[in-house]
């Protein structure tokens, strides 16, 4: 192009930038010396060769950008966008953030409170260890499994104390606790091999000693560790809970049974399932509508149409009496058929392990009744594994008379201990306690590791706590004693032996009801079903054997000559305590006790029915659900209120329940 053919834009560019250094310019400045003498090679500037065109992009004002730089920039931009949108937590997570980073429907949590330890666990010199069992979902794989211990520790300044955590017997954590008062906040991963079977027994133990700076005969370290109730075993699930057995495992201690249909058949089913769940350790309440929170701790009981009205969506292509649907994306288990006797056994016994799909249809689940003249201590909750004993070891058992063979009272416990080899100056002392009463204390030797301890009938309650403890004693003390752990085992051959004492008052009822009975509710038409279930189910769970599902007869009185439990007043049932015209009366024909009746409360007592049949009477007023029940013993009647209970003797005199339970005559 000639100078005359230049565009106006090019003219302006040349005027604005007369010293342009563009290497591609074909028109050098007129004042350039090389331009004045084109033939003079000595005065010409060397010229760099032009780079290949495909390695550069043309930039602003003619500048060039390497193509490789743009490629690297593009890759970096893509990676940055992936990180930002796929894992934003990587850029916002705090260093101390321990969240599992899964949505709530995939976050499995089982707290100590949810496992029944509402006050947490205390570890001290006298009680240095405790354990709990956690069952994880089996059908939703776990991406991460761990235990989070929270609480506080108190360690004396002159003590050395270690906290040890074992899982299925394998030590996974041990750390020295700081002296003084401190918070406890530890995350402990569960090894994959231990978590593989879906069950983990977590044992927490504190071990300590005094420092060499102090020499004393008392080797107690002055420590206390409180594992708070909100300590949890938790897991990140790869998918939400979706099977029946996993839904049951996910329940915490507090369970709500929702009963939208309050017909007799559904009230029966709800009561039977409520009794079984209570005996399995749950705190059960009833409702006609979905609770506002904790929907994953809900059992629905009703026909599918009624459950749909509550917002429950059934699983796709799943039929059966039990099904896991959803309520607002939360997995919720529902009983859609009113077969409470079968469902109650299925939900609380081992066969529930077969329910590995979204629905199941159990039709018959019989439970074996206890038999024989002995019950092993393992069946009563005692740990029969080998344990290391430093100074003391306790084995705790609980038994209900209703669950023993024939409802009989035990007469003794046979204790078989495997003792370790020890120095000659060491003595083991075994103590036996029943319901807080010391029954016996004896020395053990290597040849006397077995003992039979009588269990007095007068010291027994309907529900009993039995403790066997072993203490170590030596003639030497202080710095001359080497603190050594000794292995010891309560052998599985240890057992409670049945007796023939008939019992008295409430302790005589299990033997009366053992052959079988029905629950009669004569005045059921006008009663509020939810209030009634909340009131009577905890009482029934106390007196009904765990292997038995009673028949409910609404609007019917007890039959002559048949054992029974009756709710409310019934013709032909004679009780010692009577509620008449708003007053509580007790005693002979002329009442010795005559007081105004409560607005909210219960009277629970033994009774005589048609044909001299013996049974239990439950009368209530108001809405007494959730009231604490007394420790039923040899008394025959209990008046239960929100502020406590008292027993009534046959002559009408009253006595505090704790004294009555200790063995007042019936």
From TrEMBL:
Stretches with biased composition (Polar residues): 15-27
Region (Disordered): 1-60, 647-666
Listed transmembrane segments: 68-86
Entry keywords, A to Z: Membrane, Transmembrane, Transmembrane helix
UniProt keyword annotation of Membrane present: yes
Domain of life: Bacteria
Protein name (database record): Uncharacterized protein
């Amino acid at each position: 192009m000639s100078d005359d053919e230049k565009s106006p834009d090019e003219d302006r560019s040349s005027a604005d930038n007369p010293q342009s250094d563009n290497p591609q310019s074909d028109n050098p400045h007129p004042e350039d010396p090389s331009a004045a003498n084109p033939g003079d090679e000595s005065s010409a500037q060397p010229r760099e060769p032009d780079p290949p065109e495909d390695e550069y992009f043309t930039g602003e004002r003619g500048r060039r950008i390497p193509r490789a730089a743009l490629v690297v920039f593009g890759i970096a931009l893509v990676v940055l966008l992936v990180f930002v949108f796929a894992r934003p937590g990587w850029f916002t997570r705090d260093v101390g953030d321990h969240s599992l980073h899964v949505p709530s429907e995939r976050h499995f949590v089982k707290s100590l409170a949810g496992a029944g330890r509402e006050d947490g666990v205390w570890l001290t010199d006298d009680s240095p260890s405790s354990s709990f069992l956690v069952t994880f979902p089996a059908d939703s794989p776990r991406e991460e499994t761990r235990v989070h211990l929270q609480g506080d520790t108190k360690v004396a300044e002159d003590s050395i104390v270690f906290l040890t955590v074992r899982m299925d017997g394998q030590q996974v954590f041990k750390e020295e606790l700081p002296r003084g008062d401190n918070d406890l906040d530890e995350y402990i991963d569960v090894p994959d091999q231990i978590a593989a079977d879906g069950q983990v027994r977590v044992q927490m133990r504190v071990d300590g000693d005094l420092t060499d700076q102090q020499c004393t005969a008392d080797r107690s370290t002055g420590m206390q560790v409180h594992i708070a109730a909100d300590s949890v075993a938790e897991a990140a699930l790869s998918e939400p809970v979706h099977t029946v057995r996993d839904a049951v495992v996910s329940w915490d201690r507090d369970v709500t049974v929702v009963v939208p249909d309050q017909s007799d058949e559904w009230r029966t089913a709800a009561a039977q399932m409520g009794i079984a769940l209570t005996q399995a350790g749950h705190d059960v309440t009833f409702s006609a509508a979905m609770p506002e929170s904790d929907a994953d701790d809900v059992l629905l009981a009703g026909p599918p149409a009624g459950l749909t009205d509550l917002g429950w969506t059934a699983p796709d292509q799943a039929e059966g009496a039990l099904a896991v649907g959803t309520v607002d994306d939360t997995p919720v288990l529902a009983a859609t058929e009113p077969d409470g006797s079968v469902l109650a056994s299925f939900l609380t016994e081992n066969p529930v392990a077969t329910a590995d799909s979204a629905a199941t249809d159990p039709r018959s689940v019989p439970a074996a009744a206890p038999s024989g003249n002995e019950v092993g201590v393992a069946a009563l909750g005692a740990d029969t594994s080998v344990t290391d004993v430093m100074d003391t070891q306790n084995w705790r058992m609980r038994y209900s008379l209703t669950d023993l063979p024939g409802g009989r009272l035990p007469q003794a416990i046979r204790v078989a201990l495997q003792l370790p080899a020890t120095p000659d100056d060491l003595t083991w002392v075994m103590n036996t306690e029943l319901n807080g009463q010391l029954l016996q204390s004896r020395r053990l030797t290597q040849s006397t590791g077995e003992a039979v301890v009588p269990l007095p009938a007068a010291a027994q309650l309907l529900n009993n706590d039995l403790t066997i403890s072993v203490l170590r004693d030596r003639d030497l003390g202080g710095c001359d004693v080497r603190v050594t752990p000794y292995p010891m085992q309560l052998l599985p051959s240890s057992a409670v032996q049945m007796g023939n004492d008939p019992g008295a008052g409430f302790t005589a009822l299990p033997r009366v009801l053992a052959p079988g009975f029905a629950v009669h509710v004569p005045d059921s038409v006008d009663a509020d079903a939810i209030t009634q279930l909340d009131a009577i189910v905890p009482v029934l769970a106390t007196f009904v054997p765990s292997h038995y599902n009673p028949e409910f007869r609404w609007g019917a009185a007890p039959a002559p000559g048949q054992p029974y439990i009756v709710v409310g007043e019934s013709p032909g049932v004679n009780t010692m305590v009577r509620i008449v015209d708003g007053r509580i009366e007790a005693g002979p024909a002329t009442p010795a006790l005559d007081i105004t009746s409560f607005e909210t409360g219960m009277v629970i007592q033994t009774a005589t029915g048609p044909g001299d049949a013996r049974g239990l009477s439950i009368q209530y007023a108001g809405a007494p659900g959730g009231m604490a029940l007394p420790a039923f013993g040899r008394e025959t009647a209990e008046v239960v209120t929100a502020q406590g209970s008292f027993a009534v003797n046959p002559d009408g005199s009253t006595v505090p329940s704790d004294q009555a339970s200790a063995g007042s005559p019936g």
